[in-house]
Amino acid sequence: MTAHTPKLFVKSYGCQMNVYDAERMADALAPEGYVETQSADDADLIILNTCHIREKAAEKVYSELGRIRKMKQETGRSPKVAVAGCVAQAEGAEILKRAPVVDLVVGPQSYHRLPELLREAAEGRRPVDTEFSVEDKFDHLSRPAPKAIRGRRVTAFVTVQEGCDKFCTFCVVPYTRGAEASRSVAQIVAETERLVAAGVREVTLLGQNVDAFHGEGPDGRAWSLARLLERLAEVEGLARLRYTTSHPRDMDDDLIAAHRDLPKLMPYLHLPVQSGSDRILAAMNRKHTADEYLRLIDKVRAARPDLALSGDFIVGFPGETDADFEATMAIARAADYASAFTFKYSPRPGTPASDMAGQVEETVKDERLQRLQALISEQQSAFARSLIGRRIDVLLDRPGRHAGQLAGRSPYLQPVQIVAPGANLGDVIDAVVTDVGANSLFAAPAGGARDTHREPAEATA
Ligand code: 5AD
Ligand code: SF4
Fold this sequence. Notes:
This protein is an alpha/beta fold. The protein folds into three domains: 7-133, Rossmann fold; 137-386, pyruvate-formate lyase- activating enzyme (Alpha-Beta Horseshoe), CATH 3.80.30; 391-451, CATH 2.40.50.140. Helix content is 34%, strand content 20%. Helix 9 packs parallel to helix 10 (253-261) and helix 13 runs parallel beside helix 14. It binds 5'-deoxyadenosine and iron/sulfur cluster. Iron/sulfur cluster is lined by residues 164, 166-168, 171, 173-174, 208-209, 247. Iron/sulfur cluster binds at residues 164, 166-168, 171, 173-174, 208-209, 247.
């Protein structure tokens, strides 16, 4: 007789930190026998890994909980339901009140306690664990990442920094993720080496304010992100390094120089500006002007001319006039983005901006968002088209859409579809961009098509 294998379904919303956290949750539950499933329908435990950064995201969670409640009624199944992530952190027990379907609430610092919390939930208690571990924020990260090792993934995230002390007036992160803290260089190097030994070729260093990294180095001193990147570039077998997300105030000259000096550091920078109006930037407490941002980008581009720039924008911040918004359009034009995320301002309870005068009408926000999005998507396709005929390295990281196709990423983070007979996942191949689609590039191996008429024994899986 075989015992029932419990199935876990994690649905993640929001940022890459949550994608990473989903893996940590699966890791914490693996010793309990849980295996992952791709759908809520056959899950024994459903975890909603939530995002609190914008209002809609939290509302989506409550509608999802409504759907789960209905599914339970209709099918008679009774999976346990957990709410994790930043909505869990921010709302805590409030979630239990608003959604009776929820069995437990767990914040980002407590995922290692999931097995214990589940046992409490099984006894009918509805535990809420949203403690910040004050001594060592990264205690829960110090174990290896078994899933990455089991799954033979090609790309992986490594958390190097968490939390934020910047207190932008619109943002909940300083309240939900707590104060800025960095992991030690030794821990980061060890995790990276383990991942690379297991087949990972590209590592993205993660942090809400990753360029504020100041983890303790082997010499007992605080190391900068630039120094950390330099150290990780020495890891043999690692092909690519990336980092996200940066704040303009923390981009120092060493980090800019790293974009010139480290071939493994990809020519891509996600550097949010939020607004192009100095008045709004001040009200947002961003601590820089539009001009300072543009000069900073000039410096990074001088170091790495083919840099693909990405960013975040908020339209309709309280008090934003037509002229302020035109300044945002102007900075987007001047900065020339390869991609960017655009958001309508959404008041988050407890943040200073939510009480500010001059909240902007929804219809005005909609119009501004549309205009900005149109500009950004024009820039995005122009950037993609500029690559046609050019040689790029493609890291193959998954099977392609059609038979014989593989998919990968360009150095600029664009998805690439390629037919490369004989190539394997994890290979970095020299390719020529042949065409652009709506969301991806098409490429062919440089130097012409490879020999496709090999003996079957030679063919790779
Ligand atoms: N409203 C709209 N967008 C927001 N962001 C953060 N907080 C808010 C908010 N209250 C956006 C910012 C940030 C990105 C992660 O989310 O642009 O850079
Ligand atoms: Fe939020 Fe600003 Fe911190 Fe980014 S820098 S996490 S937007 S407070």
